[in-house]
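Aim 2 progress update. The chain analyzed this quarter is reproduced below.
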Amino acid sequence: MNIQFIDLSSSLWMETLEALHHDIYHLPEYVCLEAKRTNAQPEAVLIAEDDKIFFLPYLLRQCDRIFEQSLATEGVFDIVSPYGDPGILLSESAAMTPNFLHSAMSAFISKLQEKNVCSAFLRMHPILNQGLNEIY
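Predicted structure tokens:
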């Protein structure tokens, strides 16, 4: 399983979207606009295994300011979906393989922990993520 964190300058972002059904909320331009509005860092995660693809754009926010001065910890983050309902994008093969989704989510959570991400608030897309609760 290959896991990559992608920034807006990577051509891989659009290459991935070209292979998947997506919405405006997944476009790098939209995520960039939301990042500027919310003072966050735009990123996406791409997890691939053979023809199975998991793609999720999000905003990385620094959380250091929420701690009291005596408890201040550097490098604590959270992630949130850009405004709207981007949700997780899955290739058809990934959507038909529940074990891949479980493995991808576990790997994503593990990588977020390594990046000192303490929480995630991810909105699901009402159409593109229909039935996701049945496979995960």
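The mean pLDDT is 91. Helices lie at 11-18, 28-38, 92-95, 98-114, 132-135. These observations will guide the mutagenesis experiments scheduled for the next reporting period.
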